Amino acid sequence: DAKTTQPPSMDCAEGRAANLPCNHSTISGNEYVYWYRQIHSQGPQYIIHGLKNNETNEMASLIITEDRKSSTLILPHATLRDTAVYYCIVRGISYNTDKLIFGTGTRLQVFP
Amino acid sequence: NAGVTQTPKFQVLKTGQSMTLQCAQDMNHEYMSWYRQDPGMGLRLIHYSVGAGITDQGEVPNGYNVSRSTTEDFPLRLLSAAPSQTSVYFCASSYQENNEQFFGPGTRLTVL
Fold first, then answer.
1. Is the pLDDT of residue A1 over 60?
2. Inter-chain CB proximity B44 and A45 less than 8 Å
3. Which of A36, A104, B28, B81 is most buried, by CB atoms within 10 Å?
4. A-chain residues near B90 (CB < 8 A)
């Protein structure tokens, strides 16, 4: 079972920031938070991951709360091409915890 | 680099037929995996491999076989196709098990 909870859908206006929340209240100390997205029916695409510090790359920012029980993926200036299903995944580093377990994700619709 | 390639893109089978879904990567990645995605669902791990000659089962391995004779190729065999195996199949690879995974474009399989 997925160890995360995400809202099933969200809307965002083009050019605005999209903030996608994720709850992972049972996360353990050596588990990372990963984000992938799936555009239409393509293969999933890696976005970003983090352990406890906030992370930023060219695609997005990841904000992890101090207690690590939740996180937020931020797309700073959403475009129509960011319309996709976004998956938040908790992933460990040891055998049997290191697999990507996909839930149903959040369907983000960016509108003009 | 071509990345992760999958063939065929589409396939229709009759119940009881067997076939092999092909997956290849040219990034010299050690870790490769197969997922299936049913409509409206997240991806589920079928089988994975941490290197040539080594394979292991994922969440939903029944009805599927894999082998890894080379680093580049990781074919998925359906032994006797069933309608429950109608799905989209994604292959993925990464440098190591805990690194970001690169996904192929998928194979859409229908079993009648």
1. no
2. no
3. A36
4. 43-44
